Amino acid sequence: MGKLLQIQNNERLNRADIPHLEFDVFRQELVDFVENGGQIVQFFAYEDQGAMKLLAVMRNDKLFVAGCDGPDHFDSLTAESEKFHMFEREIGEQYGLKAEGHPWLKMVRYHENYTGKKDVFDNDYTQDIPGNYPYFQVEGETVHEVAVGPVHAGIIEPGHFRFQCCGERVFHLEIQLGYQHRGVEKLLQTVPFKRLPIIAETIAGDTTIGHSLCQSQAIESLADLKVDEGASIVRTIALELERIANHIGDLGALSLDVAFNPPAAYFGRIRGEYLNLSQVLCGSRFGRGLVRPGGVTHVMQEEQRQLIREKLAELTPEVIHVSDLIFTAPSVLGRFDNAGTVSHENGEKIGLVGYAGRACGLPYDARVTFPTECYGDLPANTNEKTDGDVCSRATVRREEIMHSTALINTLLDRSAEAASYIPEEIKLAADSFVVSLNEGWRGEVSHCILTDDKGEILRYKVKDPSFHNWTGLALSLRDQGISEFPLCNKSFNLSYCGFDI
Amino acid sequence: MLKVIKNRLEQGHRTTKYPKAQIELYKRFRGLPKIDTKCADGLVQRCAAACPQDAIDTKTKQIDLGRCVFCGLCETLSEGQFVKFSQNFELGTSSRDDLFTHGDLPALAEHSQKHFKKLFGRSLQLRQISAGGCNACEADINVLNTPFFDLQRFGIQFVASPRHADGIHVTGPISENMRQATLTTWEAVPGPKVVIASGACAISGGPFHGSPEIVGDLNSLIPVDLYIPGCPPHPLTTLHALLNFFK
Lengths: 501, 247
Ligand code: SF4
Ligand code: SF4
Hints:
Chain A is of the alpha+beta class.
């Protein structure tokens, strides 16, 4: 794999310096790379002066990039490795380039492609979603199908689930999304620059900081803006608060799903306390309006430091006690253990990220491998429990709550204060490329920006960790009772809107 | 069992006394904006040009709370001289026009349609529809069911089936891919029924306004009875709106 160019996270490159390979060479390089344990960060198509191109960003413990021309039809890479499967479907849907021989070439979000090329799926978009979508079917006398959604029985996002069952036992679950598609990438490429931060914050509302960090860092790199230490501290604290709030909420919900109600009630409230700490930082429970290219909009002064410090001191023992209540209840462990297992091997094959990956022994954590902001000199969390089941995913999250709390406490003791925020005119470097990665609470979040010869955004690519991990949820249901679905689902808690963009 | 009891004692009773007692939100929270109409035109124009949501009208010097995402930029830029956000979270209105404001919203309780109070004052069941937003709106609705807010003590419930509901509560800009499902769910609710648009998305398309992939404005699809602005609306904003509109 000598032909890929090694790069750094958030490093601006001249597009001309990115290796432009023959398609066959490009294909072989990527296939070899993933065969050796590498994973895909970004793999997408774009249009440059009327010509179609492909670009890939790959990772092992380093980052690599390469590109090639984008043929209308090309030999599917998915035929060689599952890791490409969702990316190639997306390339087909967005730009009309067809991966020939792709075993599962179905729409991703159900929209017309951007190029006016013939639709890869033969869809007629005046018809309602999902169009031509042959669901995977298991045949046999005792097999039956259960279809759920898009509108579910609760306050939850829409998505369609198809179970192939024999009695209670699930052979296969297919997850078909697209309902939350609102054209985010296209907006990011076309709207006035001032709208970008607001859109980044709302790609997945529970990952507001994760996505806005990626965007801000990418823009900072393209516009050569420096971020001071005080701002980095606030950003890091905000990202960890986001992680804690989500982990706590989900541990409570997992408890509810196995009918152990008290922890659900406690953690439901306690999650709100952490959201309120984000509100102390920036006035919004979700960290809205905080991270902007160049820094943060709100300075953390002694008053806010103290409020956060005191609240953490009050909440941490409660969190420990409620966690203990969950993880020592036999009725809980009886349900968590061995439920919804994704093997290490399968996790690697589909490129699971975040706690779902770590729970099956894939240690990748972007905070450690590609650190941004303050992470370079902060200690990492190492999880021991790696059975790939609900219990492992829950355990990783329990540990990460304590780890994040320790990180925040460390950072609160650092005295650097951010400079006051002054919005300024931003000019992006022309003909450039940057990719940004951050470890959001669900896993690796990544934004990639290409600019044209005038410094306008030519292509803006967004990837939420859910893009990888939905396949993991589908696999976790294999050979499970269908009644385990809510539990498995909550143990991943994936984003519909982050996937559907 | 001992652990259950110990935790129960540690947690105690945490439900807010709101609305009997007021809640003060932290000073950085951005609620109802106060606008100084005497502010110099130049500054208003600067804010309007910078506003990511194009929510500021330079002629009337009003903010459209249906578009505003409460990012706070106009306050920062004008150093509070044009816009200053208060911590008042009472933002719900019964008409879209009222959301164009200088910071003085009509009292919601008096603008509710009387028969709604009579029909739903003691019991209100809502079906929530999530239609293309970012899921933060939904998250802060779910929060109302936690012990701190304990929505059900007011006789208000979010229910699973539209057949059991008195109305719909919609979040998100209604993605094209959710248009049909939204309509179908609304049709499945037996009349008389209410329609609530919650969050900048459902009111105006929010951060996604202008995208061809969304409807962008619930009212263009189904007539809206109650607007709850915010991005997302604070749980107290929603609670206040529901209590004042229906109680
Ligand atoms: S707070 Fe609202 S009006 Fe002010 S700049 Fe932000 S979106 Fe515009
Ligand atoms: S209004 Fe704001 S918070 Fe609510 S769904 Fe839309 S973008 Fe998300």
